[in-house]
Specification:
The chain is an alpha/beta fold and about 280 residues long. It folds into two domains: about 1-130, Rossmann fold (3-Layer(aba) Sandwich); about 135-170 and about 180-185 and about 195-230 and about 240-265, 3-Layer(aba) Sandwich (Rossmann fold), CATH 3.40.50. The protein has helices spanning about 25-40, 55-60, 65, 80-85, 100-125, 150-155, 170-185, 200-210, 235-240, 250-260; strands spanning about 1-5, 20, 40-45, 70, 90-95, 125-130, 135, 165-170, 190-195, 195-200. The strands form two sheets. A seven-stranded mixed sheet has the order 4-3-2-5-1-6-9, sandwiched between helices. It is globular. The protein starts with a strand and ends in an 18-residue tail after the last helix. Keywords: Oxidoreductase. It comes from Asparagus officinalis.
């Protein structure tokens, strides 16, 4: 879950708005900052350390020199956050401490969303929530984030089998677009499920094997007893109604792998075995 909220407008115009993006150097936030700069916004991006070279990709974005202000702020540093939000027409709150425990992660997200609705109602803040499913797609930031490990472990040989499980996927560029669409749509309210399709892990490894046969993708499920889990149904109609055309999951997975290669997280393996030397 990530959140977007309109603060009471400071200038009342559509042009030249200033918005804040928390955790600006993250996987989703980096694309969001890029898109907002492209659309002419001035962006105040919070990062924990503006001088850390891992945030250099933000400074290199088009429009960053003129309209990106990196503000130092930890989520527990209220003064830092207040300074970042000051003068903004809206806040895109994406920063989140990461935990490896999926139960704590889901609990934390549910509590945070509930608290956000309560606070927004008390203070008359226009809050809209985007609920992305598992996010894949090309990286702008140099470091790998937790969700990209999902495909990387199949490609680098660390996962020898796949689990009997299903998962919904969405491309990071659509998640960024969704945030901007709800911000710019005055009628947007409530929760927006941001998902393109649901696949079984077996389908994921088969798609990857077809696209990148040179990697040691698993061919066996770790659960050979039970029938394959069935994909569940969902609706992304609310975002489609706002004009989002979701990137198909196959294209998303392809571009994820190409990006992992380009950023040096996955060695490029020649796709055809070189002809073996002649033995005379
Ligand atoms: N990726 C997914 O599949 C997915 C799916 C659904 C929802 N989400 C949610 O979307 C948001 C962004 O996800 P992401 O995948 O883009 O994450 P990410 O790449 O790991 O980025 C998380 C960001 O949060 C910042 N952060 C962590 N702890 C912080 C703290 N105490 N104070 C200030 N900033 C802090 C990090 O800053 P530093 O660089 O300083 O560490 C980082 O920039 C998160 O809320 C996540 O839970 C993600």
């Amino acid at each position: 879950m990530t959140m977007e909220s309109h603060l009471p407008s400071t200038n009342g115009t559509t042009d030249g708005k200033t918005v804040c993006v928390t955790g600006a150097g993250g996987f989703i936030a980096s694309w969001l900052v890029k898109l907002l700069l492209e659309r002419g916004y001035t962006v105040k991006g919070t990062v924990r350390n503006p001088d850390d070279p891992k945030n250099n990709h933000l400074k290199a974005l088009e429009g960053a020199k003129e309209r990106l202000i990196l503000c130092k702020a930890d989520l527990l540093d209220l003064d830092g956050l207040r300074a970042a939000v000051e003068g903004c027409d809206g806040v895109f709150h994406t920063a989140s401490p990461v935990t490896d425990d999926p139960n704590w992660y889901c609990y934390g997200k549910a509590v945070a969303e509930k608290a956000a609705y309560e606070t927004a109602a008390e203070r008359a803040i226009d809050l809209v929530v985007i609920n992305p499913v598992l996010v894949q797609g090309p990286l702008l930031q140099p470091n790998i984030n937790a969700s990209l490990m999902h495909v990387l472990k199949y490609l680098n040989g660390s996962a020898k089998t796949y689990t009997n499980a299903v998962q919904a996927y969405v491309d990071v560029r659509d998640v960024a677009e969704a945030h901007v669409r709800v911000f710019e749509a005055p009628e947007a309210k409530g929760r927006y499920l941001c998902a393109e399709s649901v696949l079984h892990r077996g389908d994921v490894v088969r798609i990857l094997a077809k696209l990148f046969p040179e990697y040691p993708l698993p061919t066996k499920c770790s659960d050979e007893k039970n029938p394959p889990k069935k994909p569940y149904k969902f609706s992304n109609q609310r975002l489609k109604d706002l004009g989002i055309e979701f990137i198909p999951v196959t294209q998303c997975l392809y571009e994820t792998v190409k990006s992992l290669q380009e950023k040096g997280h996955l060695p490029i393996v020649p796709s055809e075995t070189p002809p073996s030397p002649q033995i005379s």
